[in-house]
Design brief:
The complex is a heterodimer.
Chain A (H helix, E strand, L loop, with lengths): L1 H24 L12 E9 L3 E9 L5 E9 L11 E9 L4 E5 L31 E10 L11 E9 L5 E5 L1 E3 L10 E4 L8 E8 L7 H6 L3 E2 L9 E2 L15 E10 L2 E2 L8 E9 L4 E10 L3 E4 L21 E7 L3 E10 L5 E7 L1 E5 L3 E4 L2
Parallel strand pairs in A: 15-23
Antiparallel strand pairs in A: 1-6, 1-9, 2-5, 2-7, 3-4, 3-6, 7-8, 10-23, 11-19, 11-22, 12-13, 14-18, 14-20, 16-17, 16-19, 20-21
Chain B lengths: L1 H27 L11 E9 L11 E9 L6 E9 L2 E3 L2 E6 L10 E2 L3 E9 L4 E5 L16 E2 L17 E2 L17 E11 L6 E2 L8 E9 L5 E6 L1 E3 L13 E4 L26 E9 L14 E9 L2 E2 L7 E9 L5 E9 L2 E4 L15 H4 L3 E9 L8 E9 L4 E5 L1 E5 L5 E4 L2
Parallel strand pairs in B: 19-27
Antiparallel strand pairs in B: 1-11, 1-15, 2-8, 2-13, 3-7, 3-11, 4-5, 4-6, 9-10, 11-12, 13-14, 16-27, 17-23, 17-26, 18-22, 18-24, 20-21, 20-23, 24-25
The chains are: A mainly beta, B mainly beta.
Chain lengths: 370, 423
């Protein structure tokens, strides 16, 4: 009997250990298409040419209290990001969506006209950001006392709108799921125990900077006539140039923006994160190295700034094909987005933002609250 | 002493039960993904209208990107273009969006698929415009016994000199046709196969979730517009495909035994081969007709919503169908609802979901009264292919610009599986 109990206990212990191993293996990481307890909007811009609309939604059937802070990544006098923060509180009723433009914020004005901007239950007083502002927005669930809680019911998107032509570009906020109730209200630990872990490696598929876009070349303002009867005229093919040629002049630029998951908002200091890039072109050729990017609380740069991510059509460029697959390894956990800017010979510019794919998660990160 | 042992034993039992429950709860939460590599990749919306004849006001094409993220192994993608074009009843060659394109005659919905194979080498990105596809001679690494880059289109028999002859992985066997019509509206589904098996089988190997994808709409005319979204992925679980036959792929775990009674009859619906489709999709949007708060021209906004069923029977040409139930919330926490049949593919402005009169729609800013809204979408139905839905949304403005974005999701569909039957 004792033997049977021993076998059973051993089996149960084994099952317990096995279960815990599986739990450990099934890591809860960040998502861009599921609600979470912490939302990170990596790219928030109000720079005189573009402004940002934030959409935030409570997917809970109960009231949600939210604490948010902007992190200002605009360069200070030294050229380094300011990394200063401004925080505010929101309250969302059940299933309530809300929105605001970061340049104007949102007041608590009663009696807005039906259908006007600002109509609806005001979630709270949201301050406008200064101009210029380039940085990020972080929001997390709290209880009525401001203590972090773990409902995993927040979702959000950011829409970047150009002042010129009204071009729009949109991405989903990165959601970090809460795994257990927060036991330290002064820190948010993104360690796969309290909250999910942030990525240490991300993937990007992009047209290398300096390449022509085949669709603009085929249908749009691909170039400007050289020679012929109409030099300088916008053309799609040489037949538009009455004897001249139509060399292509469209271009594609991909911009990357990253935010570290470790942010010390109390002391205003953030460790330096370094990004390394490995690129594969369509020939399966691997290019790596180049100048790594280092940053503190926020960075945004064009991939063409790095020679290994530049088309061979540009001086010093190394990619010989129209498409490339890029792995981005970060020394500290990060989240980020990509934004593609296409331009034609008529001077039109259009942007499209996308979330990056996650390859693997990284070490523990901590947001130290002010 | 004996009692202590008994209590310890009970405690261990309870602890083990809790731990197992945690594992089950966690695994049940696995859903489709648009930010991780996966084994089934779905592009819910592809638009080609290079003459701006039916679907767009500017010449439009879609750039499709597919990447093999496996760093050492080649992978095969078995892909299906789903043609959801409608055609005029009085002229079956004419593509239409509604009866007004047919001079008052009926605009008859259609569904057809064509399939093809793509072989991707390790870490290889591949992209093509839907209007053109990629043909022999267009692929970066045409085959073994062709020269290495940059002479990759020259057979080794011609001499490769210093660059050498490629005897390794290649795109040999790949062929991507152009979409079957221009104008075209439809979807693309690519399923990862293991090319090392003979014949190739749906990939449940250790490197089974290796594909990522994107789609970029590019409209080029007086207004240049680019909109991009991540393809939606469904991860393979590693379970063998065999219980249902290698031609039937099961998405999710079945709890609805009535599905067994309908053809095709799976042998084991408990065998989850791929992650299930979500129970609920959640779309944040601006209501149609709302003035963009940031527009300097007071441009109005609208949202296009595209939904496709997760399941399809490509063998019997039986498209997936489901009914989408919509719950709409405005910023006053007020709730509206409507429903719409998704037969093969639904691609519509949201204020046309419940009515043809946009201004009277529950998705209209004039009716909702606020700028922003949240819409929850749940697929219901009794189709043999399942009931799950996948989708993508696209914000458009009256300035002619747009931005596509992926839809959020909640909960795995627990009561039925979705089935993809291969031809």
């Amino acid at each position: 009997m004792r033997t049977i109990q021993g076998v059973r206990a051993g089996w149960l212990l084994g099952a317990l250990v096995g279960s815990l191993v599986v739990v450990g293996a099934a890591r809860a990481d960040v998502y861009t298409e599921r609600p979470g307890s912490i939302l990170i909007f990596p790219k928030v811009v109000r720079d005189g040419t573009r402004d940002t609309t934030i959409k935030l939604t409570n997917t809970n059937n109960l009231v949600e209290h939210v604490h948010c802070f902007y992190v200002n990544g605009a360069p200070g006098r030294s050229g380094a990001p300011l990394c200063s923060e401004v925080d505010f509180d929101l309250t969302l009723t059940r299933q309530q969506p809300t929105h605001w433009t970061v340049g104007s914020g949102r007041g608590t004005i009663q009696g807005e006209p039906f259908g006007a901007d600002g109509t609806g239950f005001d979630p709270g007083l949201i301050p406008p950001v200064p101009t210029p502002f380039t940085g990020s927005l972080v929001c997390y669930e709290v209880d009525v006392n401001g203590t972090p809680i773990s409902n995993n019911r927040l979702k959000g998107e950011a829409v970047l709108t150009s002042n010129i032509g009204g071009d729009v570009s949109q991405y989903n906020a990165v959601a970090v799921p809460a795994l257990t109730q927060d036991n330290n209200p002064s820190n948010l630990d993104l360690n796969n125990t309290e909250y999910g872990s942030c990525p240490a490696a991300l993937r990007l598929e992009a047209i290398p900077d300096g390449s022509f876009d085949p669709a603009i070349s085929a249908y749009g303002a691909a170039g400007l006539c050289v020679g012929g009867a109409t030099p300088g005229a916008i053309c799609t093919t040489a037949s538009d140039c009455s004897g001249g040629t139509c060399p292509p002049s469209s271009s594609v630029v991909t911009n990357l923006t990253f935010v570290p998951c470790s942010l010390d908002l109390r002391n205003g200091t953030t460790a330096t994160t370094t990004l390394q890039f490995t690129v594969w072109d369509e020939f399966e050729t691997q290019l790596s190295g180049g100048v790594p990017e280092s940053f503190s609380c926020w960075t945004s740069f064009n991939i063409g700034d790095i020679s290994t991510m530049r088309s061979s059509l540009l001086p010093g460029g190394g990619i010989n094909t129209l498409f490339a697959n890029v792995r981005i390894d970060a020394s500290h956990p990060v989240v980020g987005i990509a934004e593609r800017f296409s331009s034609d010979s008529a001077g039109n510019v259009a942007a499209a933002a996308t979330n990056l794919h996650v390859e693997r998660t990284g070490a523990n990160a901590r947001i130290t609250l002010p | 002493m004996g009692k202590t042992k008994q209590n310890a034993y009970r405690a261990l039992t309870a602890l083990t039960g809790a731990a197992v429950a945690m594992v089950l709860a966690h695994s049940a939460s696995a859903l489709s993904t648009s930010d991780r590599p996966a084994s089934i990749i779905v592009w819910p919306k592809i638009i080609v209208d290079t003459s701006a004849a039916v679907y767009t006001t500017e010449p439009t094409d879609t750039l499709l990107e597919l990447t093999n993220q496996a760093t050492s192994t080649a992978k095969q993608a078995h892909c299906f273009y789903i043609n959801a074009n409608s055609h005029c009843s009085n002229n079956p060659a004419q593509v239409c969006s509604d009866a007004t394109d047919c001079g008052g005659f009926a605009c008859t919905p259609g569904w057809a698929e064509i399939d093809f194979n793509i072989y991707l080498t390790r870490s290889q990105p591949l992209a093509w415009y839907a209007s053109g596809g990629l043909h022999r001679g267009d692929f970066p690494i045409e085959g073994p016994f062709f020269c290495n880059n940059p002479l990759s289109n020259i057979p080794c028999t011609f001499g490769c000199g210093a660059v050498g002859c490629n005897t390794g992985q290649s795109n040999l066997g790949s062929g991507i046709p152009p979409v079957p019509e221009d104008p075209f509206r439809g979807a693309l589904v690519c399923i990862q196969f293991d090319p090392s098996a003979n014949p190739a089988v749906p990939d449940q190997s250790a490197t089974r979730n290796a594909f990522t994808g994107h789609a970029t709409f590019l409209s080029s005319g007086p207004v240049l517009d680019v909109a991009k979204y991540n393809a939606v992925g469904l991860a393979a679980t590693g379970n063998a495909i065999a219980p249902n036959g290698t031609d039937i792929l099961q998405l999710g775990v079945a709890l609805d035994t009535t599905q067994v009674a309908r053809p095709p009859i799976p042998e084991s619906l408990a065998n989850q081969e791929y992650e299930g489709c979500p129970n609920t999709l959640v779309v944040d949007h601006l209501f149609d007709g709302a003035i963009d708060p940031l527009s300097s021209t007071n441009a109005t906004t609208s949202t296009e919503l595209t939904l496709i069923p997760c399941g399809n029977n490509f063998l019997s040409q039986d498209p997936g169908d489901a009914t989408a139930q919509f719950l709409v919330f405005n910023e006053f926490e007020q709730r509206f609802s409507t429903s719409r049949k998704v037969d093969c593919l639904l691609d519509t402005q949201i204020s046309n979901i419940d009515t043809r009169n946009n201004a009277r729609s529950i998705f209209s800013a004039g009716v909702a009264g606020t700028i922003a809204g949240q819409t929850r979408i749940r697929g219901v139905g009794t189709s043999a292919t399942g009931r799950g839905l996948l989708g993508v949304a696209r914000l458009t403005t009256s300035d002619g610009t747009s931005a596509a974005y992926n839809i959020h999701q909640l909960g795995a569909a627990a009561s039925t599986v979705d089935l993809i039957t291969l031809p």
